[in-house]
Amino acid sequence: MTTNLATDSSVLQRSASMPQRVDAIQSALDERGMHATEGVEELSHLALDEWVPRNGARVVARAWIDPAFRERLLANGRAAVTELGIPMPKHHRHLVVLENTPTVQNVICCTLCSCTAFTVIGLPPDWYKDLEYRARVVRESRTVLKEMGLDLAPEVEIRVWDTTADTRYMVLPAQPPETIGWPEEKLVDIVTRDSMIGVARL
Amino acid sequence: MDGMHDLGGKQGFGPVRYALNAPAFHADWEVRANSLYAYAVRLGIFNMDEYRHAIERMEPRHYLTASYYERSLTSLLTLCVEKGVVPREELERRAQGAIPLATPSAPGRTNVPAREHFKVGDRVRVRSDYVPGHVRMPGYIRGKTGVVVSESPAYPFPDAHAHGVEAQDEPTFDVRFRSEDLWPNSSDAALVHVAVFQSYLERAG
Ligand SMILES: [Fe+3]
Predict the structure, then answer these.
(1) A2 inside domain
(2) Quick one: CA dihedral A122, A125, A129, A132, positive or negative?
(3) Fewest CB within a 10 Å sphere: which of A108, A128, B64, B159?
């Protein structure tokens, strides 16, 4: 006796691969005159070449050497990064800059999806978007930071910032004392994306 | 919705797979998926709240096993089908295979009536609302009390904006909670800040 397990033909249909799904929507939009291929080219260039951590590094280095800029940055982050020619998307209406000190460590996350100030600090890395970081960093901050290589002294207060609206955050890392007096260009080179997320100190 | 995406404070996850200078992308299709959803937003096919909500509406097993860019792509494809831009059959024919989409949306809601304006230093409580549609209140702050530390400019109200419901823009308040209040006797000591829409808050005594 034969049993017909697959009465619905879709059960047997294999899933399309990710590149096939991307090709499908891109070609469908192109065919409708929506110029998706040009749009992809332009936005991919921005994502890969323009929205890079070096933007944020320039902001940090300037804040270290220019106290008036630092003050403007802490008062209105969006206006201050615009001074340096760094764009923010229209829907990011506010940039809050969080200053680390020897006794305060700020760290940013997005528990609901994976939001960042990506035009300033660069698109987020894998681990920032992973389930583990999103679930744990709000509840087990000190443990998670330690696992990631940042073993904070007990007197350091941890301040976690969950990006649940379209306001964006970036961490202003503390300047390493041995770099005081360095030229701005050399300071830009030592600022990492992870220090602006707040999971590393410099 | 109390969906699988609402991960803050969930227990049982292992170590963060941390790598120094980890890349944002691993393959060309990821770059294109990211650009295509952003392009669709630019074209006005959908807005960021609709985009986020379509990710949240992914069936939980799919959500948990999909990579970040598969989630982006699923939202893009779901919204293009739901809005009648491209039929699902055409996408699956072009892709030569099945394409899992997100589950249907529940109704949205407009602003809460009689919203209060708060200032820095005010003690506030997060309302115990249970919202079937899109909401940007992480479950771990529901009913909890904290202190306002800053205010942002008004934004579209996500609970409405993700559903095409009319609503006024609302400010968000960065509210500071103590981790001990969020998870008593069950967290590392820290101050946890969450950006909370005005409609989600009431004054605490
Ligand atoms: Fe997010």
Answers:
(1) no
(2) negative
(3) B64
Number of independent structural domains in chain A:
2
pLDDT tens across A166-189, in order? 999 999 999 999 999 999 999 999
CB of A49 within 8 Å of a chain B CB? The answer is: no
Shared domain for B97 and B127, answered yes or no, is: no
pTM beyond cutoff 0.90: yes
Tell me how many domains chain B contains. Answer: 2
Cα distances (Å, whole numbers) of residue B15 to A162, B20, B198: 19, 15, 35
Determine contact: A50 vs chain B, CB below 8 A: no
Q: How many CB atoms lie within 10 A of CB A89?
A: 16
Model pLDDT for residues A1-44, shown as the tens digit of each residue: 444 454 455 555 799 999 999 999 999 999 999 999 999 999 99
Active site (catalytic) residues of A: 110, 113-115
CB A28 within 8 A of CB B86: yes
Same domain, A36 and A56: no
Query: Cβ contact (<8 Å) for B20 and A194?
Result: yes
Do A41 and A100 belong together in one domain? no
Nearest one of B201, B45, B147 to A25, comparing CA atoms: B45
